[in-house]
Amino acid sequence: MQGRRKLTVTFTADMLAKDYTELKSCIKIAQKYGVSKKCILNYMNRFGIKRHHSKPPVAEVKRLGERGLSAPEIALYLGVTSTYISQIARKIGLKLPDKYHTGKIQKTSGHILIRKPDHPHHDCKGYGPEHRYKMEQAIGCILPRQFAVHHINQDPSDNRLNNLAIMTHKAHKMLHRALQLNNQRTSKTAALVEVSPYQE
Fold this sequence. Notes:
By secondary structure, this protein is mainly α. About 40% of the residues lie in helices and about 10% in strands. The chain has two domains: about 15-90, no CATH class; about 105-185, no CATH class.
C-alpha cells in the first residue's frame, strides 16, 4: 500500500492568511507549494481562515471564451477549476471550444467513433461508429439496431461506402466466423461468403 506523501513545507496561520490575501485563490496557493487544493483547504479550516466567496466571473469567462480559450485555459488564468468555468459557460449559454475532444476517436479495435450527441443510438459520451453514420447518410434513414455494417476488406478504419455492407447481426457474426476459419485454412478454403458492397 502506498503511504501518504510527506509535506516539505510547514504551514502556519499567518503564512496562509498572507498568501490568501495576495493570491485570492486556494488553487494558486496549492500550485505555489506543490500540494493539492484539498490540502490547503484543510489547513485553512484548521486555522479558521475564512474564504471569500466572490461573485462568479461571468463577464471574464465570456470575454476569454469569445477569444477562443477553452475551460481549462480560462480556469488556469482565473485560478479556479475547469468544472466551475464549464458550469458558468453553460448558465450563460456560451459554447467553449473543447481542444481535448475533437469529436473523433479511434478504438483499439480500429473502429472510428464520431461525436453525434443528437443521434438516437449514441453512447453515454455522445459517440457512435462512423461507418454506421456513413451508411445511414447513404440510405437516408436511421439504421435499425438489428442491422450491422460490415467492413468488406476487414479494415475497421476504412469507412469508404464501397467498403461497407449492411447485414443482420446474425449474418455478420456468421461471416466473421467464416472469415476466421478461412484465415486458419487458407490453402483448403477460398472465399466462404461473398459480400456485395453498398451501391448507389
